[in-house]
Amino acid sequence: MRKLKTVHIISNLSIGGAQLLLFDLLENLKKENLDIVVITIDSGHYIEKFEKAGIRVINLSLKGLVNPLIFFKLSNILKKIRPDIVHTHLLKADFYGRLTAKFLKIPLVFSTCHNDSTTHNLRRTDAKNFFDFVDNWVIDYTNSYIIAISEKVKEYLLHRKNEKISNRITVVYNGINIKKEHYILNNEEIKYFKNSLGLHEEDFVIAIVGRLEKQKGHIEFLSCCADVIKKNNLKILIVGSGTQKINIENCVKAEKIENNIIFTGFKEDTEKYFEISNLVAVPSIWEGFGIVACEGMIKGKIVLAANVGGLPEIIDDGVDGFLYNHSELKDKLEFIVKKYAELSNMKRNAREKIKSKFDIQKNSLLYYSEYTKRSVME
Question: Which of the following CATH numbers is that of domain 178-357: 3.40.718.10, 1.10.530.10, 3.90.226.10, 3.40.50.2000?
């Protein structure tokens, strides 16, 4: 049987959840009957990561949202490859990739929608802007199919567009490698690593892992919980880099919790930071899915996550983790610290939830199923 030529086009391969999802997805899909190529429009940190995994990457190195060269370069490359499927990721790739595929009459066009808003205006995730109207038109014009990474994202798409596209949207959850349930550090290594960060064995450690951007809610979490942090001498690992670092540092100083906060900077491999933590906080202001919650849960960690976006689809509050609205955050953190020794069942439940519902190997097959099913329909 001939392999389906599949081209994934992404706006960039910079550090981010969509990029990591694409990597994990293709790591599994390359085992299927697919010939896979990735095109990144604007370079990115993860190009080498993809290439080392044996995934071919073509880098257009083109910047700017309005750039006709993107269309012309994509056209020339796709004419040579002659793919059966074009699959786009993120705003710029969704626009240029789908229109180019339509122009070249490529049989199947998919787009993965990674967020529940294009406005990203703090909590106004239901607001519409110019890009929503453009994307709605592109969906209709290209007759493309959409993979939504959560039911919340599908709800957003239907609200933004209309119910008529419901049969063109399929929900496929993000996932992680469930082999990560096995620790990479032994007990002695955990002690040594904690010590290398200035932590003591008895410290209660909270990990906040992700880009230092407004979306991720670091400042809201720290300012709300400062009293609890100081009272219980909690240690907070802030793992990541981004444009908000100075603002977060200013918040830490204003709240007088400098001795409780450890900035690690960007880390390619975050597994060991989850392993040395007692609690994983996910204080996002908006979140299409919430892969960090899964990363914590597969390690058997208590996860405290904002009740936004796709996070309630991962966590059943009080059963396999905790969800909070902002007014509840301080009390819920205090409760977890006090009752931590009694939460063993929750940790087990969390790990089992991820293994049953968010296994990237299983969920990748749902992408392949969509490709083959839609190929027959077309």
Answer: 3.40.50.2000
